[in-house]
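Sequence only, no structure available. Ideas?
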Amino acid sequence: MTQKSLKKNVFLNMTKTVMGLIFPIITFPYASRILLPEGIGKVNFANSIVGYFTLIGGLGVYGYAVREASRLRDDKDALSKFTKEIFLINTIATIIAYLLFIIAIMLSPKLQLYKNLLFLASSTIVFNLLGIEWLYAAEEDYAYITIRSIFLQIISLFILFLFVRTQDDYMQYTAMGIFSSVGANICNFIHSRKYINWTKHYSLSLQPHVKSIFVFFGMALVTSIYTILDTSMLGYLSDDIQTGFYSAATKVNRMVLAVIIAATNVLLPRLAYYQSNEKENAVLDLLNKSLRFTHFIAIPAACGLFILAKPIVMIISGRNYLPAVISMQVISPILFVIPTANIVGVQTCTVFKKEKIILYAEIAGALSNIICNSIFIPQYGALGAAIGTVAAETVVTAIEFVYVHSYFRLKEQCINIAQICISSCAMVFGLLHIAKFIQNYVILLIVSIAAGCCIYGITLLLLRNKTAWEFVNGILHRANSTPSQSDS
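Reply:
I predicted one. Tokens follow.
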């Protein structure tokens, strides 16, 4: 099978993610001003509850399926058989998940207050079954994923502006969010015939997958405790307004986080492919380069969001959300912590079949999150949830790194981080001075991003940072190359 360009995969996946950022940059400021913190809080609380049952239906197969399907992608029959087996497992899990969802609503007076909203949001539980997103990641078919995502987002945008007009239109806002997800899943299933022979009969065997899937499910389950539970606990221990503030505080952080992770998520299929073909040196080189690149983006992004939290909240959400500023600043370190965990945990442990390390780390993170949320949310609301999230993610990353640090060139990584931190400090110093002279938030944000990138980049080049010079040399090489030249 001809290897697809890794650089093109990164570009396409980041394009999809950037479009996924532009979409909420347009929709969230509009919706947050129409629905106000209370309406946004209701929607996010409902989505957080549905998220648990979506997780049960998905059964955490994504990481396992990407790894195994990547090894089978040169054999259509083997891949088709594998896909049918995973699909059958997901079907059983989805039925169980929806039954549990109905029981939860029946037994919880709190959830009954949101019954109509919850049932609307729950359509994602069923339609996620058809998504088989892992198949396209395994096949590295990022062109299809990108085109599909952009098309559905444009349609969703029209739905938002047509139907979300008043503070009471939070049901319509929920439906808009569901449309792109459900539409993507339906398109995925139809398009999967390119890779999968659904009509051919195979003798299916579920048993070989069950043990590994449940390890991945355990990882996904405990991860959800500190990625979804903060919003759920805010809904139970506080109110819809604090949930709305927390949504505003985390919105931009999560958007930037998605871009950083998108740049490296395309590596997992390639890493698994290399590992299955006994190319361990290539795996280690790719992991180390990926970690350097991740820190190259993540550290200045965290610093920038901390400094620019107030203008970002004012532009994205409006004056009604000003209490969210301090929560956004507190949670900004996750832009560095989570992408690091994605490399040292998800990428490294998965490709070397050390998933139990991730599971143990995430159990520790989940426990720390529950403890912190229980202590801080009743007193501090959204700020308490932010503290709990940072604590949990830090615990997870630290434990994972202790177990897998031997796969990384620590001296090289430490030099890279030191140079990036020095450059980020120079950037922060510059941004603080710029803020003294510009009062308009939009102009301040634009000037700060442009100036910050310049200060950061120039300082890195002066420090002879390896990643920065690789980036510059790559641009120069592409500019000087002939049209016939292609990357690998």
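The longest helix spans residues 6-58.
Hope that gets you unstuck.
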